[in-house]
Amino acid sequence: MPNTATLNRKSAERAARQELILQGALTVFKEKGLEGAKIDEIARVSGFGKATLYYYFTSKEEIFSALLLHGWLSLWRELEEIAVGGDSPRATFISMLKKIAELVNTDRPLYEFLFQAPQSYTREENERSEWKAYQNRLYKVLMELIEQGIQLGEFPQMEPRLIMKAMGGLFHGLVFLGKDRDTITENEIEEMLGNLLG
Amino acid sequence: MPNTATLNRKSAERAARQELILQGALTVFKEKGLEGAKIDEIARVSGFGKATLYYYFTSKEEIFSALLLHGWLSLWRELEEIAVGGDSPRATFISMLKKIAELVNTDRPLYEFLFQAPQSYTREENERSEWKAYQNRLYKVLMELIEQGIQLGEFPQMEPRLIMKAMGGLFHGLVFLGKDRDTITENEIEEMLGNLLG
DNA sequence: CTAATATTCGACCCGTAGTTCGAATAATCG
DNA sequence: CGATTATTCGAACTACGGGTCGAATATTAG
Predict the structure, then answer these.
(1) Given CB atoms, is A190 within the 8 Å cutoff of chain B?
(2) Is the same domain home to B157 and B84?
(3) Closest in B120, B162, B174 to A170, CB measured
(4) Is A51 (CB) below 7 Å from strand D?
(5) What is the pLDDT of residues B34-59, one digit of tens each?
(6) How many domains does chain A have?
(7) Which of A33, A170, A198 is the closest to B165 by Cβ?
(8) Which residue of A has its CA nearest to B165?
(9) Do A23 and A116 lie in a common domain?
(10) CA-CA distances (angstroms) from residue A106 to A22, A173, B83?
(11) Residue B160: which domain range?
(12) Do A21 and A76 fall within a single domain?
Protein backbone atom coordinates (compact mmCIF):
# COMPACT_ATOMS: atom_id res chain seq x y z
CA MET A 1 0.00 0.00 0.00
CA PRO A 2 2.14 2.86 -1.23
CA ASN A 3 2.12 6.34 0.23
CA THR A 4 1.12 9.05 -2.25
CA ALA A 5 3.49 11.76 -1.08
CA THR A 6 6.40 9.35 -1.08
CA LEU A 7 5.42 8.23 -4.54
CA ASN A 8 5.57 11.77 -5.82
CA ARG A 9 8.94 12.37 -4.29
CA LYS A 10 10.25 9.15 -5.76
CA SER A 11 9.07 10.02 -9.21
CA ALA A 12 10.63 13.45 -8.85
CA GLU A 13 13.91 11.90 -7.80
CA ARG A 14 13.69 9.53 -10.68
CA ALA A 15 13.20 12.42 -13.08
CA ALA A 16 16.07 14.29 -11.49
CA ARG A 17 18.37 11.32 -11.95
CA GLN A 18 17.31 10.97 -15.55
CA GLU A 19 18.14 14.61 -15.94
CA LEU A 20 21.61 14.06 -14.50
CA ILE A 21 22.21 11.22 -16.88
CA LEU A 22 21.08 13.32 -19.81
CA GLN A 23 23.39 16.08 -18.74
CA GLY A 24 26.35 13.73 -18.71
CA ALA A 25 25.23 12.23 -21.97
CA LEU A 26 25.09 15.66 -23.56
CA THR A 27 28.70 16.30 -22.66
CA VAL A 28 29.87 13.06 -24.14
CA PHE A 29 27.65 13.10 -27.21
CA LYS A 30 28.73 16.61 -28.03
CA GLU A 31 32.35 15.68 -27.87
CA LYS A 32 32.23 12.24 -29.43
CA GLY A 33 29.03 11.97 -31.41
CA LEU A 34 26.48 9.18 -31.22
CA GLU A 35 28.77 6.34 -32.23
CA GLY A 36 31.85 7.66 -30.53
CA ALA A 37 30.17 8.09 -27.18
CA LYS A 38 30.64 5.02 -24.99
CA ILE A 39 28.05 4.05 -22.42
CA ASP A 40 30.83 3.55 -19.90
CA GLU A 41 31.94 7.11 -20.36
CA ILE A 42 28.45 8.53 -20.09
CA ALA A 43 28.06 6.55 -16.89
CA ARG A 44 31.35 7.80 -15.51
CA VAL A 45 30.67 11.42 -16.43
CA SER A 46 27.17 11.43 -15.04
CA GLY A 47 28.30 9.67 -11.89
CA PHE A 48 26.33 6.43 -12.07
CA GLY A 49 27.19 2.83 -12.63
CA LYS A 50 26.77 1.58 -16.14
CA ALA A 51 23.89 -0.71 -15.28
CA THR A 52 22.08 2.11 -13.56
CA LEU A 53 21.77 3.89 -16.85
CA TYR A 54 19.80 0.92 -18.07
CA TYR A 55 17.57 1.17 -15.06
CA TYR A 56 16.50 4.60 -16.30
CA PHE A 57 16.78 4.17 -20.04
CA THR A 58 16.35 1.15 -22.22
CA SER A 59 19.23 1.84 -24.59
CA LYS A 60 21.91 4.25 -25.66
CA GLU A 61 19.72 5.20 -28.56
CA GLU A 62 16.95 6.15 -26.18
CA ILE A 63 19.23 8.40 -24.19
CA PHE A 64 20.20 10.11 -27.38
CA SER A 65 16.61 10.53 -28.49
CA ALA A 66 15.44 11.72 -25.10
CA LEU A 67 18.06 14.42 -25.22
CA LEU A 68 16.98 15.64 -28.62
CA LEU A 69 13.30 15.37 -27.87
CA HIS A 70 13.73 17.35 -24.68
CA GLY A 71 15.51 20.09 -26.57
CA TRP A 72 13.38 20.34 -29.67
CA LEU A 73 10.17 20.05 -27.75
CA SER A 74 10.94 22.87 -25.35
CA LEU A 75 12.22 24.96 -28.22
CA TRP A 76 9.02 24.37 -30.12
CA ARG A 77 6.86 25.16 -27.11
CA GLU A 78 8.52 28.53 -26.74
CA LEU A 79 8.32 29.40 -30.41
CA GLU A 80 4.82 28.21 -31.05
CA GLU A 81 3.32 31.20 -29.26
CA ILE A 82 5.29 33.64 -31.34
CA ALA A 83 4.46 31.83 -34.55
CA VAL A 84 0.75 32.36 -34.12
CA GLY A 85 1.13 35.92 -32.88
CA GLY A 86 -0.25 37.42 -36.07
CA ASP A 87 2.52 39.88 -36.78
CA SER A 88 3.79 40.36 -40.30
CA PRO A 89 5.81 37.41 -41.63
CA ARG A 90 9.07 39.28 -41.43
CA ALA A 91 8.44 40.57 -37.93
CA THR A 92 7.40 37.13 -36.79
CA PHE A 93 10.44 35.59 -38.38
CA ILE A 94 12.73 38.01 -36.63
CA SER A 95 10.97 37.55 -33.31
CA MET A 96 11.46 33.84 -33.56
CA LEU A 97 15.15 34.18 -34.28
CA LYS A 98 15.47 36.53 -31.35
CA LYS A 99 13.73 34.07 -29.12
CA ILE A 100 15.99 31.27 -30.23
CA ALA A 101 19.07 33.34 -29.54
CA GLU A 102 17.66 34.08 -26.12
CA LEU A 103 17.06 30.43 -25.39
CA VAL A 104 20.49 29.47 -26.62
CA ASN A 105 21.89 31.66 -23.90
CA THR A 106 20.03 29.70 -21.26
CA ASP A 107 21.62 26.39 -22.21
CA ARG A 108 24.34 26.80 -24.74
CA PRO A 109 25.70 23.25 -24.73
CA LEU A 110 22.26 21.81 -25.32
CA TYR A 111 21.46 24.04 -28.25
CA GLU A 112 24.86 23.69 -29.81
CA PHE A 113 24.16 20.01 -29.76
CA LEU A 114 20.64 20.41 -31.12
CA PHE A 115 21.79 22.48 -34.06
CA GLN A 116 24.79 20.31 -34.80
CA ALA A 117 23.51 16.80 -34.31
CA PRO A 118 20.56 16.73 -36.66
CA GLN A 119 22.45 16.68 -39.93
CA SER A 120 25.06 14.30 -38.67
CA TYR A 121 22.72 11.83 -37.15
CA THR A 122 19.76 11.91 -39.42
CA ARG A 123 20.00 8.37 -40.65
CA GLU A 124 17.07 6.07 -41.27
CA GLU A 125 16.15 5.07 -37.72
CA ASN A 126 16.17 8.59 -36.37
CA GLU A 127 14.28 9.76 -39.41
CA ARG A 128 10.98 8.89 -37.82
CA SER A 129 11.91 9.52 -34.24
CA GLU A 130 9.81 11.85 -32.21
CA TRP A 131 12.18 14.77 -31.92
CA LYS A 132 12.47 14.93 -35.67
CA ALA A 133 8.80 15.83 -35.83
CA TYR A 134 9.33 18.97 -33.78
CA GLN A 135 12.39 19.92 -35.73
CA ASN A 136 10.40 19.60 -38.95
CA ARG A 137 7.50 21.55 -37.57
CA LEU A 138 9.77 24.43 -36.70
CA TYR A 139 11.45 24.26 -40.08
CA LYS A 140 8.10 24.32 -41.81
CA VAL A 141 6.84 27.33 -39.90
CA LEU A 142 9.95 29.31 -40.75
CA MET A 143 9.68 28.32 -44.39
CA GLU A 144 6.09 29.46 -44.54
CA LEU A 145 6.98 32.78 -43.01
CA ILE A 146 9.61 33.25 -45.66
CA GLU A 147 7.21 32.31 -48.41
CA GLN A 148 4.58 34.71 -47.20
CA GLY A 149 7.19 37.38 -46.67
CA ILE A 150 8.34 37.02 -50.24
CA GLN A 151 4.78 37.49 -51.44
CA LEU A 152 4.57 40.70 -49.47
CA GLY A 153 7.93 41.90 -50.71
CA GLU A 154 9.39 41.70 -47.23
CA PHE A 155 12.08 39.29 -48.34
CA PRO A 156 14.23 39.17 -51.47
CA GLN A 157 12.59 37.54 -54.45
CA MET A 158 14.46 34.28 -54.27
CA GLU A 159 13.78 30.61 -53.91
CA PRO A 160 12.50 30.37 -50.30
CA ARG A 161 14.67 27.41 -49.43
CA LEU A 162 17.72 29.40 -50.40
CA ILE A 163 16.78 32.22 -48.10
CA MET A 164 16.20 29.63 -45.42
CA LYS A 165 19.63 28.13 -46.00
CA ALA A 166 21.33 31.48 -45.94
CA MET A 167 19.49 32.52 -42.80
CA GLY A 168 20.38 29.23 -41.23
CA GLY A 169 24.07 29.67 -41.87
CA LEU A 170 23.99 33.28 -40.84
CA PHE A 171 22.07 32.73 -37.67
CA HIS A 172 24.14 29.77 -36.69
CA GLY A 173 27.19 31.88 -37.11
CA LEU A 174 25.81 34.79 -35.16
CA VAL A 175 24.73 32.72 -32.23
CA PHE A 176 27.58 30.26 -32.01
CA LEU A 177 30.67 31.89 -33.41
CA GLY A 178 31.47 34.30 -30.64
CA LYS A 179 33.12 32.28 -27.91
CA ASP A 180 32.87 34.93 -25.23
CA ARG A 181 29.61 36.70 -25.87
CA ASP A 182 26.94 35.48 -23.50
CA THR A 183 24.57 38.39 -23.79
CA ILE A 184 23.86 38.27 -27.45
CA THR A 185 21.98 39.75 -29.97
CA GLU A 186 18.97 41.89 -29.55
CA ASN A 187 19.57 44.61 -32.08
CA GLU A 188 22.42 42.65 -33.56
CA ILE A 189 19.94 40.28 -35.06
CA GLU A 190 17.91 43.15 -36.42
CA GLU A 191 20.99 44.74 -37.88
CA MET A 192 22.32 41.59 -39.39
CA LEU A 193 19.06 40.64 -40.97
CA GLY A 194 18.53 44.15 -42.18
CA ASN A 195 21.88 43.92 -43.87
CA LEU A 196 21.08 40.75 -45.68
CA LEU A 197 17.39 40.97 -46.25
CA GLY A 198 17.69 44.40 -47.82
CA MET B 1 63.94 -8.84 -63.75
CA PRO B 2 60.73 -6.91 -64.24
CA ASN B 3 59.54 -5.53 -67.54
CA THR B 4 59.06 -1.74 -67.50
CA ALA B 5 56.00 -1.58 -69.74
CA THR B 6 54.28 -4.30 -67.77
CA LEU B 7 55.12 -2.53 -64.57
CA ASN B 8 53.43 0.61 -65.79
CA ARG B 9 50.32 -1.26 -66.78
CA LYS B 10 50.22 -2.98 -63.43
CA SER B 11 50.47 0.22 -61.53
CA ALA B 12 47.74 1.70 -63.69
CA GLU B 13 45.51 -1.27 -63.00
CA ARG B 14 46.28 -0.97 -59.35
CA ALA B 15 45.26 2.66 -59.40
CA ALA B 16 42.12 1.80 -61.32
CA ARG B 17 41.14 -0.78 -58.73
CA GLN B 18 41.77 1.65 -55.94
CA GLU B 19 39.50 4.02 -57.78
CA LEU B 20 36.78 1.41 -57.95
CA ILE B 21 37.05 0.75 -54.26
CA LEU B 22 36.85 4.45 -53.52
CA GLN B 23 33.79 4.73 -55.69
CA GLY B 24 32.06 1.99 -53.76
CA ALA B 25 33.23 3.47 -50.50
CA LEU B 26 31.77 6.82 -51.46
CA THR B 27 28.37 5.29 -51.96
CA VAL B 28 28.40 3.57 -48.62
CA PHE B 29 29.98 6.41 -46.66
CA LYS B 30 27.48 8.86 -48.05
CA GLU B 31 24.60 6.71 -46.98
CA LYS B 32 25.89 5.44 -43.66
CA GLY B 33 28.63 7.75 -42.50
CA LEU B 34 32.08 6.75 -41.32
CA GLU B 35 31.02 4.57 -38.40
CA GLY B 36 27.91 3.21 -40.04
CA ALA B 37 29.73 2.04 -43.13
CA LYS B 38 30.85 -1.57 -42.79
CA ILE B 39 33.93 -2.80 -44.58
CA ASP B 40 31.99 -5.81 -45.74
CA GLU B 41 29.45 -3.61 -47.43
CA ILE B 42 32.05 -1.45 -49.10
CA ALA B 43 33.65 -4.64 -50.36
CA ARG B 44 30.34 -5.96 -51.66
CA VAL B 45 29.37 -2.69 -53.33
CA SER B 46 32.73 -2.19 -54.98
CA GLY B 47 32.82 -5.82 -56.10
CA PHE B 48 35.87 -7.08 -54.26
CA GLY B 49 36.46 -9.47 -51.42
CA LYS B 50 36.95 -7.92 -48.03
CA ALA B 51 40.56 -8.93 -47.77
CA THR B 52 41.27 -7.41 -51.16
CA LEU B 53 40.40 -4.01 -49.79
CA TYR B 54 43.20 -4.49 -47.31
CA TYR B 55 45.52 -5.35 -50.13
CA TYR B 56 44.96 -1.84 -51.50
CA PHE B 57 44.39 0.12 -48.34
CA THR B 58 45.67 -0.37 -44.85
CA SER B 59 42.47 0.50 -43.01
CA LYS B 60 38.94 1.75 -43.26
CA GLU B 61 40.17 5.07 -42.00
CA GLU B 62 42.61 5.26 -44.86
CA ILE B 63 39.91 4.64 -47.41
CA PHE B 64 37.91 7.43 -45.88
CA SER B 65 40.85 9.80 -45.88
CA ALA B 66 41.90 8.91 -49.40
CA LEU B 67 38.42 9.78 -50.57
CA LEU B 68 38.44 13.16 -48.87
CA LEU B 69 41.99 13.96 -49.86
CA HIS B 70 41.25 13.12 -53.47
CA GLY B 71 38.28 15.44 -53.44
CA TRP B 72 39.66 18.40 -51.55
CA LEU B 73 42.97 18.26 -53.33
CA SER B 74 41.49 18.34 -56.81
CA LEU B 75 39.08 21.05 -55.73
CA TRP B 76 41.93 23.09 -54.39
CA ARG B 77 44.02 22.63 -57.51
CA GLU B 78 41.23 24.00 -59.65
CA LEU B 79 40.53 26.96 -57.42
CA GLU B 80 44.09 27.95 -56.71
CA GLU B 81 44.52 29.44 -60.16
CA ILE B 82 41.46 31.60 -59.79
CA ALA B 83 42.47 32.73 -56.34
CA VAL B 84 45.69 34.28 -57.56
CA GLY B 85 44.09 35.76 -60.66
CA GLY B 86 44.31 39.29 -59.33
CA ASP B 87 40.71 40.32 -59.92
CA SER B 88 38.85 42.31 -57.31
CA PRO B 89 38.00 40.36 -54.16
CA ARG B 90 34.33 40.20 -54.97
CA ALA B 91 34.91 39.14 -58.57
CA THR B 92 37.38 36.51 -57.45
CA PHE B 93 35.00 35.26 -54.82
CA ILE B 94 32.21 34.89 -57.34
CA SER B 95 34.49 33.21 -59.86
CA MET B 96 35.49 30.67 -57.29
CA LEU B 97 31.91 29.88 -56.40
CA LYS B 98 31.09 29.52 -60.06
CA LYS B 99 33.98 27.16 -60.49
CA ILE B 100 32.88 25.08 -57.56
CA ALA B 101 29.36 24.82 -58.91
CA GLU B 102 30.83 23.73 -62.21
CA LEU B 103 32.94 21.06 -60.57
CA VAL B 104 30.04 19.82 -58.51
CA ASN B 105 28.27 19.02 -61.74
CA THR B 106 31.12 16.79 -62.82
CA ASP B 107 30.85 14.53 -59.77
CA ARG B 108 27.85 15.34 -57.67
CA PRO B 109 28.05 12.41 -55.23
CA LEU B 110 31.65 13.16 -54.42
CA TYR B 111 31.06 16.82 -53.71
CA GLU B 112 27.91 16.23 -51.76
CA PHE B 113 30.02 14.00 -49.60
CA LEU B 114 32.85 16.51 -49.38
CA PHE B 115 30.56 19.28 -48.23
CA GLN B 116 28.63 17.12 -45.82
CA ALA B 117 31.25 14.96 -44.22
CA PRO B 118 33.61 17.57 -42.82
CA GLN B 119 31.45 18.85 -39.98
CA SER B 120 30.23 15.42 -39.05
CA TYR B 121 33.58 13.74 -39.03
CA THR B 122 35.89 16.37 -37.79
CA ARG B 123 36.87 14.66 -34.58
CA GLU B 124 40.35 14.61 -33.11
CA GLU B 125 42.07 12.08 -35.35
CA ASN B 126 40.90 13.60 -38.60
CA GLU B 127 41.76 17.01 -37.34
CA ARG B 128 45.30 16.72 -38.52
CA SER B 129 44.68 14.56 -41.55
CA GLU B 130 45.95 15.67 -44.88
CA TRP B 131 42.68 16.53 -46.55
CA LYS B 132 41.82 18.88 -43.73
CA ALA B 133 44.75 21.03 -44.73
CA TYR B 134 43.31 21.64 -48.17
CA GLN B 135 39.89 22.31 -46.80
CA ASN B 136 41.35 24.88 -44.44
CA ARG B 137 43.39 26.46 -47.16
CA LEU B 138 40.32 26.97 -49.27
CA TYR B 139 38.38 28.31 -46.33
CA LYS B 140 41.13 30.74 -45.54
CA VAL B 141 41.34 32.08 -49.06
CA LEU B 142 37.61 32.70 -49.18
CA MET B 143 37.72 34.42 -45.82
CA GLU B 144 40.50 36.70 -46.94
CA LEU B 145 38.60 37.64 -50.05
CA ILE B 146 35.63 38.56 -47.92
CA GLU B 147 37.78 40.60 -45.57
CA GLN B 148 39.38 42.49 -48.40
CA GLY B 149 36.03 42.92 -50.06
CA ILE B 150 34.62 44.47 -46.94
CA GLN B 151 37.49 46.93 -46.84
CA LEU B 152 36.68 47.97 -50.38
CA GLY B 153 32.99 48.20 -49.64
CA GLU B 154 32.24 45.32 -52.01
CA PHE B 155 30.59 43.33 -49.24
CA PRO B 156 28.24 44.33 -46.44
CA GLN B 157 29.94 45.75 -43.37
CA MET B 158 29.58 42.69 -41.20
CA GLU B 159 31.70 40.25 -39.29
CA PRO B 160 33.49 38.36 -42.10
CA ARG B 161 32.82 34.97 -40.60
CA LEU B 162 29.13 35.70 -40.65
CA ILE B 163 29.19 36.53 -44.31
CA MET B 164 31.13 33.36 -44.84
CA LYS B 165 28.54 31.36 -42.94
CA ALA B 166 25.67 32.90 -44.82
CA MET B 167 27.39 32.37 -48.15
CA GLY B 168 28.12 28.81 -47.18
CA GLY B 169 24.51 28.06 -46.42
CA LEU B 170 23.31 29.89 -49.46
CA PHE B 171 25.72 28.30 -51.83
CA HIS B 172 25.16 24.87 -50.42
CA GLY B 173 21.49 25.36 -50.98
CA LEU B 174 21.88 26.64 -54.47
CA VAL B 175 24.12 23.84 -55.61
CA PHE B 176 22.54 20.92 -53.80
CA LEU B 177 18.89 21.67 -53.28
CA GLY B 178 17.61 21.24 -56.80
CA LYS B 179 17.29 17.52 -57.38
CA ASP B 180 16.83 17.75 -61.14
CA ARG B 181 18.99 20.64 -62.22
CA ASP B 182 22.24 19.40 -63.68
CA THR B 183 23.18 22.50 -65.63
CA ILE B 184 23.35 24.98 -62.84
CA THR B 185 24.11 28.27 -62.06
CA GLU B 186 26.04 30.65 -64.22
CA ASN B 187 24.04 33.82 -63.89
CA GLU B 188 22.06 32.28 -61.10
CA ILE B 189 25.02 32.63 -58.83
CA GLU B 190 25.51 36.21 -59.92
CA GLU B 191 21.89 36.97 -59.30
CA MET B 192 21.72 35.25 -55.97
CA LEU B 193 24.82 36.91 -54.66
CA GLY B 194 23.71 40.24 -56.02
CA ASN B 195 20.53 39.80 -54.07
CA LEU B 196 22.25 39.10 -50.82
CA LEU B 197 25.42 41.06 -51.11
CA GLY B 198 23.58 44.23 -51.98
C1' DC C 1 56.59 -25.12 -69.19
C1' DT C 2 58.08 -24.03 -64.35
C1' DA C 3 59.22 -20.99 -60.85
C1' DA C 4 58.36 -16.86 -58.81
C1' DT C 5 55.35 -13.19 -57.89
C1' DA C 6 50.99 -10.70 -57.67
C1' DT C 7 46.23 -10.81 -56.59
C1' DT C 8 41.98 -12.50 -54.61
C1' DC C 9 39.12 -14.08 -51.04
C1' DG C 10 36.25 -16.37 -47.34
C1' DA C 11 37.07 -18.09 -42.94
C1' DC C 12 38.79 -16.98 -38.74
C1' DC C 13 40.58 -13.99 -34.84
C1' DC C 14 39.85 -10.90 -31.27
C1' DG C 15 38.98 -6.42 -29.08
C1' DT C 16 35.32 -3.46 -28.19
C1' DA C 17 31.18 -1.88 -26.37
C1' DG C 18 26.04 -2.38 -25.76
C1' DT C 19 23.24 -4.95 -22.90
C1' DT C 20 21.90 -8.18 -19.16
C1' DC C 21 22.49 -10.73 -14.64
C1' DG C 22 22.53 -11.46 -9.97
C1' DA C 23 23.88 -10.10 -5.88
C1' DA C 24 24.28 -6.34 -2.59
C1' DT C 25 22.51 -2.26 -0.45
C1' DA C 26 19.03 1.26 0.66
C1' DA C 27 14.41 2.83 1.29
C1' DT C 28 9.51 1.99 2.52
C1' DC C 29 5.81 -0.30 4.56
C1' DG C 30 2.96 -2.68 8.20
C1' DC D 1 11.88 -4.90 13.49
C1' DG D 2 11.28 -8.21 9.34
C1' DA D 3 9.47 -8.29 4.71
C1' DT D 4 8.96 -6.29 0.45
C1' DT D 5 10.28 -3.27 -3.01
C1' DA D 6 13.38 0.14 -5.27
C1' DT D 7 17.96 1.23 -6.61
C1' DT D 8 22.78 0.50 -7.61
C1' DC D 9 26.55 -1.64 -9.73
C1' DG D 10 30.58 -4.43 -11.52
C1' DA D 11 31.07 -8.74 -13.66
C1' DA D 12 29.89 -11.49 -17.33
C1' DC D 13 27.66 -12.25 -21.80
C1' DT D 14 27.42 -11.55 -26.68
C1' DA D 15 27.16 -9.53 -31.28
C1' DC D 16 29.40 -7.03 -34.31
C1' DG D 17 32.82 -5.66 -37.23
C1' DG D 18 37.74 -4.26 -38.30
C1' DG D 19 41.56 -6.55 -39.46
C1' DT D 20 44.60 -10.94 -40.53
C1' DC D 21 45.77 -15.63 -42.41
C1' DG D 22 46.67 -19.03 -45.49
C1' DA D 23 45.34 -21.23 -49.26
C1' DA D 24 43.91 -20.82 -54.09
C1' DT D 25 44.27 -18.72 -58.51
C1' DA D 26 46.05 -15.75 -61.99
C1' DT D 27 49.91 -13.38 -64.07
C1' DT D 28 54.64 -12.61 -65.45
C1' DA D 29 59.45 -13.91 -66.00
C1' DG D 30 62.99 -16.82 -67.90
Answers:
(1) no
(2) yes
(3) B162
(4) yes
(5) 999 999 999 999 999 999 999 999 99
(6) 2
(7) A170
(8) A169
(9) no
(10) 16, 18, 42
(11) 65-197
(12) no
